[in-house]
């Protein structure tokens, strides 16, 4: 009788190999965790291990807590409450002129020993009186507006005083999504309120003024609670550095707030301190090319006189373009005696002329050509 070869099915062989590997790994894991021993861990040992895990988690939370406390102690004294009074004169038919006052409140942060404070433009715009309160001082300082920029909703106010606390400015380009941040401000008048959250997103676009379509790019989104009165206060990293200026919330939404990156705020503040204003023509518009011209003519039924330049969509009040008489619908073709083919070229020409300079602007209004002068 011939011998019969014993055959193991391939599928069964694979299962046996996997089970053997799992068994070897399990033995190694038990040996690593509990050491070489002949009996399984006791309930007391398991509970001790669980307590150690809890201690590790508690240590992490305590480290975060200590970091937040240190940040508040370090920067809190430099976060100010800003109270404003806006006066409006109303003509009443029976009693004549009536002066009405409206009060406002916001926050700010002192950035240097000269008393310069960064805040939001909407906090102090149209204010006739500005009072600045420090956390550890009962009497207010009188604030003076150094300059404002509605394009970024930033402003600089100055107070005069000695030994003023200041907040260090960080680098918002180093922020990462998921990073812890702290907001300090005066929501609803509750002084020096502190909230903790995360950087929810970076590079958001934020519409500042729907009327003029003013939008700022690169905004920080955070779930740190930001409420009315927080505007102008600092957003801080765990090193106690200002990484943003809190500016807005979405109404009826929880956990969605926005802050202007400090790298943007720093540049704006430096220019406002040096010149009292930001060098801009004060228009919103776009570059005219063949695509723009074709779309414009198709949608309006009007023909453009030229097919290159800068088309003005909006003119911002109290800016050089408005003072020069430019209007929405005008088409800029030259500036300073040089042809303008794009918005970038126009911005570069404005910077070339600089603060205090004059810029001659050639433009079309309809089919008529005009020249005006903008005082920058």
Q: Extract low-pLDDT stretches.
A: 1-6
Question: Judging by the overall fold, what is the CATH architecture of the largest domain?
Answer: Beta Barrel
Structural class: alpha+beta
As for the CATH topology of the largest domain, it is: Thrombin, subunit H
- Proportion of residues in β-strands: 35-45%
Overall CATH class of the largest domain? Mainly Beta
CATH superfamily of the largest domain: Trypsin-like serine proteases
Residues in helix, %: 25-40%
How is this structure best described in words?
- The protein is an alpha+beta fold and 376 residues long.
- The chain contains seven helices and 19 strands.
- The chain folds into three domains: 76-158, Beta Barrel (Thrombin, subunit H); 172-275, Thrombin, subunit H; 283-375, Pdz3 Domain (Roll).
- It has a seven-stranded antiparallel sheet. A six-stranded antiparallel barrel has the order 8-9-10-13-12-11. Strands 14, 15, 16, 17, 18 and 19 form a six-stranded antiparallel sheet that branches.
- A hairpin with a 3-residue loop joins strand 1 (79-92) and strand 2 (96-110).
């Amino acid at each position: 009788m011939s011998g019969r070869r014993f055959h193991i099915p391939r599928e069964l062989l694979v299962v046996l190999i996997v089970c053997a590997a799992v068994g070897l790994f399990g033995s190694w894991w038990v040996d690593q965790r509990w050491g070489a021993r002949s009996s399984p861990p006791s309930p007391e040992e398991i509970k001790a291990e669980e307590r150690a895990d809890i201690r590790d988690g508690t240590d992490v939370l305590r480290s975060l807590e200590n970091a937040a406390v240190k940040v508040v102690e370090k920067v809190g004294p430099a976060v100010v409450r800003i109270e404003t009074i806006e006066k409006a004169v109303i003509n009443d038919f029976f009693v004549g002129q009536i002066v009405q006052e409206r009060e406002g409140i916001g926050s700010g942060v002192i950035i240097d020993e000269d008393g310069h404070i960064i805040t939001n433009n909407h906090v102090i715009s149209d204010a006739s009186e500005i009072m600045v309160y420090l956390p550890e001082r009962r009497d207010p300082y009188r604030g003076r507006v150094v300059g404002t920029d509605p394009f970024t909703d930033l402003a600089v106010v100055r107070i005069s005083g000695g030994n003023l606390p200041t907040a260090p400015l960080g680098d918002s380009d180093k922020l990462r999504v998921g990073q812890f941040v702290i907001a300090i401000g005066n929501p609803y008048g509750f002084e020096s309120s502190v909230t903790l959250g995360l950087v929810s997103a970076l590079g958001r676009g934020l519409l500042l003024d729907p009327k003029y379509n003013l939008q700022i790019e690169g905004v920080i989104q955070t779930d740190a609670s930001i409420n009315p009165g927080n505007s102008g206060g600092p957003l801080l990293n765990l090193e106690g550095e200002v990484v943003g200026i809190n500016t807005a919330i979405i109404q009826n939404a929880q956990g969605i707030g926005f802050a202007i990156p400090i790298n943007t705020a720093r540049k704006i503040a430096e220019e406002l301190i040096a010149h009292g204003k930001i060098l801009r023509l004060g228009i919103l518009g776009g570059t005219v090319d063949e695509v723009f011209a074709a779309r414009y003519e198709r949608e309006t039924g009007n023909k453009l006189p030229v097919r290159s330049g800068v088309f003005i969509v909006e003119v911002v009040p109290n800016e050089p373009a408005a003072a020069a008489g430019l209007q929405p619908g005008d088409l800029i073709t030259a500036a300073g005696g040089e042809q303008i083919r794009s918005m970038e070229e126009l911005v570069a020409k404005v910077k070339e002329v600089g603060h205090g300079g004059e810029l001659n602007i050639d433009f079309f209004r309809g089919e008529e050509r005009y020249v005006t002068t903008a005082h920058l």
